[in-house]
Design a protein that fits this description.
Layout lengths: L3 H6 L5 H23 L27 E4 L4 E5 L3 E7 L8 E5 L5 E4 L10 E8 L3 E10 L12 E11 L3
Parallel strand pairs: 1-3, 2-8
Antiparallel strand pairs: 3-6, 4-7, 5-6, 7-8
Amino acid sequence: MLTGATVLVLPGSGAARCVFMAKMALIAALGAVLFMACGYNPCACDGSGTLPVQTSPSPGLGFDAVVTETDTAITIQSGQKLEVVLHARSGMANWSNVRSSDTSVLSPIVNPAATAVRGVTLAAFQALTPGRSDITATAGAACSPGQACPMYVMLYSVTVTVLPSR
């Protein structure tokens, strides 16, 4: 049932009002589609059909290189400092137990930027001698206290090759 206010807002009566409403609905739908599609690119392609190369973030102050949870290998030189920046995935606890498999090659050091944002784990290492070492870290499921929790763990590993300094 139309009220007196509706009669004043909608032009015409009967069929004219129905056409007006259909046009307005079509305009609103087109506007919503254009608004949502503006700048949306699901492929993130560079136009040639290939994905652009992902670059690592810049190392922090006092560091020569940085690795993140997306890296699998890096090569640095003796004497250089390596920063490890690990972001927790959704539903997972923060990364922990960040360790070097060979501390004679890659030794843990204090990270001056040890205060990270929530969900980010920071670690730092100094390359001592030429060789190879794996940095590993683990993260379990983020569970609420008193709730059943799945028993799985994620393992992060990056291979660090240390070359002699020049």
